[in-house]
Amino acid sequence: MLILVANLGSTSFKYKLLDVSGELTADVRPDDRVLARGAVERIGDAQGDGEPTSRCEVTIGDYHHVYEMPVPDHGIAVQSCLDQLTDPQHGCLKDASAVSAIGFKAVHGGRKSGTFLVDDDVLEAMAEMNAAAPAHNPPYIAAMKLLRDRFPNLPLVAAFETEFHDSIPEARRVYAIPPNWREDYQVQKWGFHGSSHRYVAERAAELLGRKDARIISCHLGGSNSLTAIQNGQSVMTTMGMTPQTGLPQNNRVGDFDPFALPLLMQRSGKTLEQLLAELASEGGIKGISERSGDLRDVELAAEDGDAKSQLALNVFVEEIRRHMGGMIVAMGGVDAIVFTAGIGENSDIVRSAVCKNLDSLGIQFDEERNQNHRGSSPPEGGNPGEGYLHAESSSTQIWVIPTNEEWIVAKRTKLALSH
Ligand SMILES: Nc1ncnc2c1ncn2[C@@H]1O[C@H](COP(=O)(O)OP(=O)(O)O)[C@@H](O)[C@H]1O
Ligand SMILES: CC(=O)OP(=O)(O)O
Ligand SMILES: [Mg+2]
């Protein structure tokens, strides 16, 4: 059984074609089930001099190709993925009917939190949340409609990011808002990045050799969120009603006081819609650095002495540490801190700053391991890119675990098809 997983991130498009045949027991290695994979980076990113381009990568069996293209939108990226998979020379599919379903790492379904076959009601539920997830829902809806038109007989499945957080206790998901807002308008902390945090929960349990560990999963990428995990379940997360909240995001604001808005309207003469659009595209790391939402650009500029870029990095790290502290108290301790996604897997600068001076909490970071992590081989039985960064004497383990959202979405898609 083949499932194509489409992962439309705020800054990227990634896909994997996965074979999910048979029973997916714990000894199945997800990497052994990948038939093809591809990624397009820096979607919607118009930084730098000259014509902006995206770096693209595709691997189909032994065929590996890296190339550049003018920055596409998500629709063009999805089309090019299908063209690659069905290419007569390098492709691995005769046509799309060889695939049992396309699974989407869909973001905000509001009243639909779970995994569903995409029908008009699911598309409507997503559209209802467009204002809450402006960087995520519209491209997913467009891609789903495009694929539904092109392959009317192919099941499309939406695995919503909120589902993993359904286990968060009420006292950590209720806002202190006026009566009825929650019941009548579904205003509550939903939480996102569920596939990534669920993958981290599963993989960390394997690497730690125990299922009851208290874990803080740090998903730091285009969008950023931390999740506290206990007994494999989400018990607290930083994103709230929308994926704009919690930590500063690439170009979206993070936590912010809503009462600044009426003042901003009076002082700037802008409408609420204009201000919200700015908060969701000109804020976050991009807003503070006044340079870019891509941390690679910000780290380079900070290294060259750019004060605003250094401030963006400092705010980002302070916010991560503030939330981490809350999670450690909420769980009564932490057995493992895990870094994942584009920043978590690649930025030794952020990992080091986040873990600084925590020895008194039993969190001892090994800076040398951190510096040497890239290019080092994983511990025995580990996947590429995995490794630990804690000192041998640390009571809390610190890991880098490359996320595998596509594996979680593929498993959930298979389950949804069987119902
Ligand atoms: N080598 C690197 N060093 C620092 N940050 C990186 C590096 N590579 C990628 N990133 C960051 O990761 C982000 C992409 O993360 P990713 O999780 O792939 O994104 P998405 O949110 O689009 O799914 C980039 O925007 C950039 O900020
Ligand atoms: C919320 C979400 O899914 O974010 P991203 O893919 O941009 O990291
Ligand atoms: Mg992502």
Automatic annotation (TrEMBL):
It catalyses: acetate + ATP = acetyl phosphate + ADP. ATP binds at K14, D294, L295, R296, G342, I343, G344, E345, N346. HAMAP family: Acetate_kinase. It comes from Rubripirellula obstinata. Mg(2+). Can also accept Mn(2+). Belongs to the acetokinase family. Residues 366-389 are annotated as: Disordered. It is an enzyme of class 2 (transferase). Its EC number is 2.7.2.1. Its cofactor is Mg(2+); Mn(2+). This is Acetate kinase. Pfam families: Acetate_kinase. One of its GO terms (molecular function) is acetate kinase activity. The keyword Repressor does not apply. It comes from the Bacteria. Mg(2+) binds at N7, E405.
